[in-house]
Amino acid sequence: MSELTPLLAGNNNNNNGNDAENELAEPVPEESPTWRHGVFNFLEAKTTAGRWYERFMIVLILANVAGFVLASLFVTDYNDEVWAQRHTGICDDWCDAIWFGNYADNPLGVLGIGSTSILELTTITVFSVEYLFRLYLADLENPEKYSGFTGRLKWIPTFFSMIDLISTVPFLIDAFFLREQDLVATSFVRMFRLFRMMRVEGRYGSALTMMDDVFAAQASIFGTALFVGFTTWMTISSLYYVVERTNLDMIYCGAAPDYCPEDVDTSLCNIDSWGTTDCTKAGCPPTEEYPQPCYNLYNSIPMASYYALLNLFGEFPLIDQHSAYGQVVGTLTAVVAVAVFALPAGIIGNGLEDAIASKRRNTETGPIQEHGTLTRGFEASTDSSRGRWYNFIHANTSGEAQAFDLFINSLIVLTAFTFMLDTLSDLPSHVHIVLDAFELISVSIFTVEYVIRVYSIKEDPKYNKPGGRFQYMTSFLSVVDFLSVAPYWIEVITTGRVITPYSDASSTASNAVKALRLLRILRFERYTHAFTSFDDVIMRNSDILSVTLFSALLVWVLFAAVLYITERDNPDSEMAENYKTVPHSMWLTLLNLSGEAPLAQYSTIGKVVTGILGLFATAIFGIPIGVLGAGFEEVLEEENEDNVQELEGNATDANNGPAASEPVQLGNSFERSMYQFVNGIGSKVAQYFELSIYGLIFLTIAVGCYQTLDGHENDLHQVEWVAVVIFTIEYLMRFIGTAADPQFSNGNNAIRCRLRFVVSFYSIIDLLAIVPFYVAWALPNTIVNDYDEYLRMLRILRLAKLDKYVPSLTLIDDVIRLKYQSLKVAFFAAITLWILFAAAMFLCEHSDSSNGIDNVPDYGCDSDCTMESRFQNFFDSMVYTGVHLTGDYPIIEYNWPGRFVNFFIVIAAVGVVSIPSGLIASGFVAIVQSKNKKKNSASHDAGWRAGDDWYEARFRELKGIAPPESGWGSSVDRWQVTVNEFLNGKQTTEDGPVEWTYFSYASRVFILLVIISNVVAVLVESVPDIDKAVGNQQGNFFDVFETFSVMVFASEYILRLFCAPKNREALYSSVTYATTFFGIVDFMSTAPWFVEQGLIMSGLLSQDDDMARIFRIFRIFRILQLEDFVVAFSKLDNVFRASKDVLKATGLLALIIWVGCGALFYIFEENNPNWRECDSSVPLHTNETGHPGCYDFKSTAECNQFYPDLCSQKAFTDMPNALYYTAVFLGGEWGVIDFTWPGRIVCLFLCVVGIALYAIPVGTLFDSFGAVLGLGGDDDEEEDEDTGEKAEPEKYQ
After folding, report:
1. Distance separating alpha carbons of residues 1213 and 470, to the nearest angstrom
2. pTM (two decimals)
3. Which of 114, 184, 480, 947 is the most exposed, fewest CB within 10 Å of its CB?
4. What is the pLDDT of residue 186?
């Protein structure tokens, strides 16, 4: 394959590639043409017949892939649909013999070669004959390399040769050598024939060669990123293992044998000290055939690692089963670990985007040129009525015309809204009649307007020609106008009804006609030009899209086929049902490739496959979507420039600051002292008071969250008393000092300035956080007590006060002004797609009664609920569609039309809808950086790089300085030098390479092996069966190995302490080594063992105690010792310093969004009956007043009062739980979705804005981490070359 990507370099013909491919494509000129050359040219499509053969091969390959996909629909062992049955369905034996070959006894059974089809036999014949010819003609591809018998042997292992063999040989083996065996591979290998498209359509080969380019370019840092990701993965896996291995809610019986109950009550199960699960009391005992029918999903670190991997992908399929400590680990994972773990996939994605951008620059054709529908600036003559109509309807040359245009636009909005209202089934019938009448009037007006537009268009020079009207009628906006009225009149003519009763109007056909009126929204395209740029974007990126779309298609179809084979026999019925055919598998694989993991109970092979999907394939699959989104955003930025004055103003403010002008003395001395004290001005006491206020804000919020826990409602109430008194005093001091505050007192008297203060933003926040406390205290045992829990949540508003210290909320208006033009267009495109896709999903799902879901009593369904309960009207559909447009799929139970719509949501809309969020995020970063421009431009010493601190500065100072002599004498000094060279190598020159002796290098490899062996030992020991087999007796294998390892690591630690005075990377100091990253890691690798042994010897800890197991798990952190070989985590402090400006502002904003939305979800969803579960003895719903059902209570607490301990709420039970769910939501994963309407509004806020704002700190860390590690390596190298300084040490940080 080629070394470069010729297509992206501008070569669009089929004969592109590298020298090898050109040699393959050209006949050998030295010899006179023979029949061999003719056949070779035929196979390489160099003749007319050859080009027809190439087209035939493309069709044949696609037919094979389609045959495999469709054949899976007619395998009755997995698909029990009536139409799929062999003899009674739509495909009989001859159909199977021609196309699919599912059954050995079809009409081709007489051949005696097993199950096959005419399509398969034809393909094998063609492929085999072609392969033999290519093998025979291999010397014509490269005479020097492939001539003779040995040359042809060298040709066989080449890429395309192997693809040909994989496509044919399994069938031949199955047909002629293993006839009694049913080899699954014989049908599955059809999917590999897609790779042959690279031969017949040469440019697709660049899809894989581009990956070669990316890996080659990123090779130097890819290992580092993998180490970061692997370490994070193992750490999170170990933490989950520790906290969840005894969690009964994590017991899985989905693959239990038939003798077990359908729903095993896992609360009756038991998990012993080894981690073995026994569910005998729950009716699922172990047997000889099934020794462990149920097991905990986190019973070992290897088991936990798969679910931790899903969490690190941002997916939480077990979100509602985690324990309290598991939720803490989950929150940590969602908030921090995901960003670090994303580095490997990020490198692939960024590398591909960089490669695409660099290649595209070679073929850039300049900025996009917009071509309007009408002749710009043309005004028709008023001599004719047609000219006057043109000026009125097209050119808008008069005030009346502009007023009419405004009227039409208002009518568009109103008709769209009437469609939404018309989907509400509980509206009175007369309201539906009024809506239908309004629709009749509106359509009549739109029809007349459309006729006038078509009639008058001939005045425009662009259409004043034969066929001009037809040309206009086929333009985008004219088609929109036509489709918005024509179906209505067709329905009126065919049904004879103008006013339709709702019982008839609720049909899918009628709703579809009404939904078409939403297309009128696209008429606003005349003002925004958002969608008319799409064809230009596609044309500009056509070459890139052809490559990346083929890559994405290849990945999608291939992985879908693999998962179909691995999961169709999954003992879990839900898993098997979702993978029973290839089309079913393609639906789930599509979601997997978009970053989703709605299911988790895969087979072992399936877990490996989905892990690969999440790690690498998603980055490849997301490129075409990213190309479309980036191209659209590029158009927006070209056509809608940012308001640079906003940045310049912020930079000026940052440079001038408040000290630029002479302060004016306001108020009297007492008022000034109050103002200065509460704002931390003038004294240390004032500064400490201000900081204490901020600390008290966090403390009261933490106490408020803690008090939502059941049974702790009144704990720590003294803290709230003290805090309220202090906040009250602070408020009064601010009130008094207002006269000296320039924000309120300039030009105002004392009363007016204080009134302005009272109604100010921060004053209202203070009052809302304080007054409810006094009201509850003053009015005990009143209605206030019923809402006391919610009133306490108002204290969270105090977080907004931190905006005065670190501006974040106040930057929102700056961001909007900066990106206003681009945001206006982007939001129009996003909202339009949202409305149109919501309508499409409503049409597909509002009558879906076949796909079952959990009970949703809040939506009116107590049992046997289906998807139609979720999609009852357009407004319901908007919520679920809005979540899907963020790229998340908590719902997968769609019918096939719904899945078809979702395909386009995944492929097209996600890239466009994410643009407003991206614009807001980039605007925040730009604003914050402009405000810190002066500080960031401060001078630094030579060699300074972003994120440097005292260590890097001191390291540069020590360049060329010899290490100090030891105070213990010359012999100790020599030993220190020797040990240092042994452990750290020797540099003969300052910037030269590190040299190792054979013995020192061998010891380094030995340490590496011991570290890796320790990690493996921890993983293996956590497996219950292995741990039980080895036992906990004194002197068992794991204990002996641990003792040996500790001695090795402790010896190395002591030696490093000893030689640190001779190591510049330790700044010639043992203390520096011991107190920085590597010293701490080396110390912590052994300290837990010594602590454990001390506790065992003192009798405080038993060898088989559960706490001893946790001590042993700490060994997993020895993986950090690999930092000595691959540098990554020791640069974390540099990362935070490099991004601290953006982190401070956006971090506070993210905190406010997280805690604020968590509080709102808690308030709105605490008693949502959709999350309520009751014991089977409790009826779900009754009409009896004295015997209410589970869903009849207003709250779960009331349910438990009536049915003690039989009712539970699975989500949003308290603030910590709500914060856990919200942290997951903000990562883009909606683990639960059936909210109340207030909760839905919070959900949509997060979808539109919250997720993007929350992601800014994570994205900033990613960028800074990449820059420090070298993802921006070119820049770093240039800096190093300019300064003449070698790269900073990657050790003792």
Report:
1. 62
2. 0.84
3. 184
4. 57
